[in-house]
Amino acid sequence: MLVWTPAHGRMRVPEELSEMGDALRTARAHWTESDLMAATRKLRLLGGMLAGLCALTFFQNLGTPTAEQTPTATRLLCALLAMLESTRCGLALLAFVIFAFIPWYQARKRRLQLPSWDAAGIAKNVPAIRFEIWLGRQNSPLTKVLMGLIALVGLAQILSHYPTEGLGSLLSIFKTWDGTATAGLMKDRYLQGEWWRLFTAPFLHGNIVHFLMNASALIYLGKRVEVFARWPHLPMVFLFAACVGGEASVRFVAAPTVGASGGLMGLLGFLLVFETLHVRLVPRSARRRLAGGVVLTALIGLVGFRYIDNAAHVGGLLAGMIYAAIVFPKSASPTRPRSNRTDRIVGSLATLVLIAVAALTIWRVAMGGSTAN
Hints:
Largest sheet: none
Radius of gyration: 24 Å
Number of helices: 15
Strand content: under 5%
Number of domains: 2
Shape: globular
Helix content: over 70%
Order of helices and strands: HHHHHHHHHHHHHHH
Number of strands: 0
CATH topology of the largest domain: Rhomboid-like fold
């Protein structure tokens, strides 16, 4: 939000006006308490669901047919190990961390910071607030194109259920999505010559939660790359990082994988280096959020190591960092770098490759669904 007063010749953020300090502090305190209450309720709800699911899994394994012939201590240990190895418990824990614990922690942190929200604290945050407002008003058409391609592939995955389920296929949005066998990164088939799986797998997703997490990351990171480094580098970084992340997954993970996480981590790694090399473009607090994103991703990868391809994450992150370090020299200028003709040509070719790969992925998913049915 921007405001105008007769005393100033241009629109300003409210935090720049000293006379609005009391109103801003009151509004922030109210918003922080409301946010914390909502996060606490979610923490208790999802925490209770997680505890109930783990308890159910534990007691189901405690009462196996051979339980009577097994010592009590051994039965308890086996039931505990079965609970820890349970896929549904692991996914529930991952959902609890992402959708409950992290929002609660962030809300509580904001409340602890309320005493520092005085006149000096508000003035200190003005550059970051102005930056976020400016960034939000920038256009990012290529990010929307890439998001649209991934969404079309996701729709194809959902509709692949239609021939057998009819209208009930609408419920498939909440199920495991098809496509891994036909276009995912099946390591054995890739090594046997199906090289195109390295390109199609990033357009696929395992379920609605996986898709929404990657979509939100793409909208934020993609726009940031497109605005700061110009549009040609968005498809180039994404494509390069997705391929490097896929290769890392082939070397270190045996299970089939899908998802755009390798490319997205490449965008994150790119921004970490790019914004460090162009320190006057982005406020320090905004750069710290990117570092926080790396820590958060590492935490999620640690919690969900059985379901998350950490090799692809690390490979994509390093690829993006290397790309930025090689392509962009260090600069003290507050002006964004311009793209040259070579950038635009290569960026256009990378965009065409992404469009072609998305079309191939949709075709593979459709053919796989029709064959299976």
